[in-house]
Amino acid sequence: MGRYEKIDLPVSNIRRYLEPGPIVLVTSSFSKTRNIMTMGWHTVMEFTPSLVGCVIAAGNHSFELVRRSGECVINLPTTKLTDQVVAIGNTSGAEIDKFATFALTPQKAQLVGAPLIRECHANFECKLADDTLVDKYNFFIFEVVKAHVAPAPQHPRTLHYTGDGVFMVAGKIISRRSHFRPELLSD
Amino acid sequence: MGRYEKIDLPVSNIRRYLEPGPIVLVTSSFSKTRNIMTMGWHTVMEFTPSLVGCVIAAGNHSFELVRRSGECVINLPTTKLTDQVVAIGNTSGAEIDKFATFALTPQKAQLVGAPLIRECHANFECKLADDTLVDKYNFFIFEVVKAHVAPAPQHPRTLHYTGDGVFMVAGKIISRRSHFRPELLSD
Questions:
Q1: In a 10 Å sphere around its CB, with 0-12 CB exposed, 13-18 middle and 19+ buried, how is residue A37 labelled?
Q2: Chain B closest-CA separation from residue A92 CA (Å)
Q3: How far is CA B49 from CA A108, A140, A162, A177, B151, in A?
Q4: What is the pTM of this model?
Q5: Taking CB atoms and an 8 Å limit, are B164 and A170 in contact across chains?
Q6: ipTM for this model
Q7: From the candidates B17, B19, B81, B86, which should be mutated to test the interface with A, based on the most A CB atoms within 10 A?
């Protein structure tokens, strides 16, 4: 499997990767326990601070790790990791070490305790910013405090879950940049 | 432009359309004013009740219409409506009637006052379920109370925004159904 060398990305720019709706792998760690889960229910909420809201169901082994540590890493897999994404989503970290079982490489993060997954295209280090809706909806709001991305390919072939075991794979890229108001563009 | 004939979809199944992260068109109506906005920041939050969380920035003309009516419709456009999606996102409903300007057909909803967009592949009628985080994050939680979808194509060519005027178009479909635990599948 590929192990991407990554560069820093300004955290305000992560919408480029998360807004199109990819399935992601969330890593967490608490008191010498670590885990990986698949997650499809997330949304960008703000650029600065860089906020991402997501649902981590209370039944997941990761729920307590995230809640107690107040941290996680959102890792962006591509189609090269399709088998791992499916396997991670269909097993429990209460029973196996998913890094070892699925041959994924944990890498030390800079600002949080949870590990990055080296084989993923991008890694977003997150700190819990707001837990107001955790009890009622399992909805966590994280601030992305550090972002690492592979410089190529520019548009990774991400996986987008549609339920029932079926994924849509990211397709072609089209630009309508010339039709946008300047203030809606990055530069 | 196509005008899809639609069938009812159980509201608990809308994840199939929204979880992959498409850009959507949100329609709203209050006191004889109506509007359409583009929205890319949304996530499924629960199956039953069918909850969707989304960010509608306070600067949008639609913000007050949604907040005051407590209702909206989330409409799912495909690549056939790319020009309209871009134009709607780059104009303000304070200045123009977007239905008339962009030749979109408003259609009466069943359970809410906001209109459906007939040219969209799917329409989800929504009622505001929780406004706890509206003041702080412009984050609305809606309950989808009625869902209308075109029966074909089964996997619509949706648009997925990556920022900076660039969209990813939904690509090929791959099934890993045989690798899923039965309780994670629909039937």
A1: buried
A2: 12
A3: 39, 19, 18, 38, 23
A4: 0.96
A5: no
A6: 0.96
A7: B19
